[in-house]
Design goal:
This protein is mostly helical. The chain contains 7 helices and no strands. The longest helix is centred in the last third of the chain and has 25 residues.
Length: about 140
């Protein structure tokens, strides 16, 4: 649902986004949305660093051997790929927090189980999109 809301927001407000210089912010939101979209299907994982490291090594071996990674490989190595996508979300929000405080709530870093980590990122995205939408509609 969040992805659809962001898509519509971007499509309906493209010229306003460009006029206000929000293009890079909007593109970062697409990246965050993609990472969360991918991660939600990978959250059924153990919460063990050694298992994640083994998964990372196997992922890397597949990448080198086949020069291709698609969803089946994401799923097979979810012990690591889930971390990859949710880390992308965290890093993107921490970066956006610096220049876009009016849209992005403060990110509170802590160890979270996988499903809780995904939910935290998703809630953060929903709040950010809401503030972004309010800003765009206020400028009509």
């Amino acid at each position: 649902m969040c992805a659809i809301r962001l898509f519509k927001l971007l499509k309906e407000n493209q010229s306003r986004i460009e006029q206000k210089g929000y293009e890079l912010f909007a593109q970062d939101l697409v990246g965050i949305t993609f990472s969360l979209w991918r991660a939600v299907f990978l959250a059924d994982k153990k919460w063990e660093r050694a298992v994640s490291l083994e998964s990372a090594i196997q992922f890397f071996e597949t990448l080198i051997a086949d020069n291709a990674i698609n969803y089946p490989q994401d799923k097979k190595f979810n012990e690591w790929t889930f971390n990859y996508y949710t880390n992308n979300v965290r890093y993107a929000f921490l970066h956006l927090e610096e220049g876009w405080k009016k849209f992005v709530p403060k990110w509170h870093s802590k160890d979270r189980p996988p499903e809780e980590r995904w939910e935290y990122g998703q809630n953060h995205l929903e709040q950010t999109i809401e503030k972004f939408a309010e800003d765009l509609s206020a400028r009509l």
